[in-house]
Amino acid sequence: IGAFRNHSFSSRVAPYSRSLKTLVLAEHDGGSVKASTLSAVEAANLLGDGNSISLLLAGSGPSLQEAAQHAASCHPSISQVLLADSDKFTYPLAEQWAKLVHVVQQKGSFSHIITGSGSFGKNILPRAAALLDVSPITDVIEISGSNLFVRPIYAGNALSTVRYTGSDPCMLIIRSTSFPLKPASAGSVSNAPSVDKVDTSSLDEDDAVGKSKFISISSQDTERPDLGNARVVVTGGRALKSAENFKMIEKLAEKLGAAVGATRAAVDAGFVPNELQVGQTGKIVAPDLYMAFGVSGAIQHLAGIRDSKVIVAVNKDADAPIFQVADYGLVGDLFEVIPELLEKLPDK
Ligand code: FAD
């Protein structure tokens, strides 16, 4: 797939200088800050020298306190951890979070607000941007300065360079796979950041929040690696024909210590839940090895896998578009190939 750069703004526009102060909206689970948030911190580091980075954590109870401890020791670039402790944040609902970001921005006057591109960030940041009356920039894959960003367009077939000329804060959703955690950043905190509480009393009194409410959460087997960060991903498409048959993909993933992915057709057919969808409207993955079984290679699917290091495809149609991007391709029936692989691969 060819990519070209579309320089939307003239290079004669001089970059303007300002002091950098970045707020990273943090996602946490089970007492730990998620990897996508650490990627957002890595991205914040690229905005320029002297950037002071604050992490905003919201939640309630002991899991928030554990996450706060993790946040204070998980990345050397974090200078402040802001804690919003309220029952309103037990689950990350967009309305409450957006209001919180608004309150924190009014007090902190951040030049940038960043988050990762999972459903957490995509849900919250645009709503917060609307409250702050700025245009967010989504799907950022490269940061060339404090106001110059690269993002894919046309399902990743073109790259657009965008200069932000609006007022503060400049709000960004970054693709986590484009800003991996640097090995030097992991577990090397010498100066612990300050941990400050956010006053949430104005939110508690606000009737405007609370239009949506939390009903339930269902999550997949936590033993499998997270799809967005997995080193190996095994994906099944419509060709699997049923949820029962899709279990072959799950078994193969288990043997390979891989995450399971699916095409939108497989998700729409009800073989697997929506959270496994890979692609333009699903998750973006960048594993070392991506294995696609019975996947045609539609452009919207390829948009989510283009950063994979090695792509292996098995499809019974030799003309399937997936073979144009595959490093290794096998023309064959997955109902023969997968059982053979399961038989020959050793147990993990
Ligand atoms: P198909 O296109 O039906 O392909 C099935 C393939 O399996 C075929 O190539 C066939 O040759 C092969 N096959 C059949 N039987 C066997 C067998 N026994 N052994 C081996 N191979 C076999 N799709 C996504 O995946 N992710 C997205 O995020 C996404 N977003 C979208 C957003 C928009 C706005 C739109 C319009 C579409 C989006 N789609 C997305 C859908 C996308 O266009 C395709 O429809 C979808 O990816 C096709 O899924 P598939 O490859 O499983 O199915």
UniProtKB/TrEMBL annotation:
Q: Where in the cell is it found?
A: Mitochondrion matrix
- Give the note describing cofactor binding and stoichiometry: Binds 1 FAD per dimer.
The record ties this protein, via SUPFAM superfamilies, to:
Adenine nucleotide alpha hydrolases-like, DHS-like NAD/FAD-binding domain
Q: What does the annotation say about its assembly with partners?
A: Heterodimer of an alpha and a beta subunit.
Gene source species: Erythranthe guttata (Yellow monkey flower)
What's the protein here called? Electron transfer flavoprotein subunit alpha
Q: Does the keyword Transit peptide apply?
A: yes
Q: By its UniProt entry, which InterPro entries does this protein fall under?
A: DHS-like_NAD/FAD-binding_dom (IPR029035), ETF_a/b_N (IPR014730), ETF_a/FixB (IPR001308), ETF_alpha_N (IPR033947), ETF_asu_C (IPR014731), ETF_asu_C_CS (IPR018206), Rossmann-like_a/b/a_fold (IPR014729)
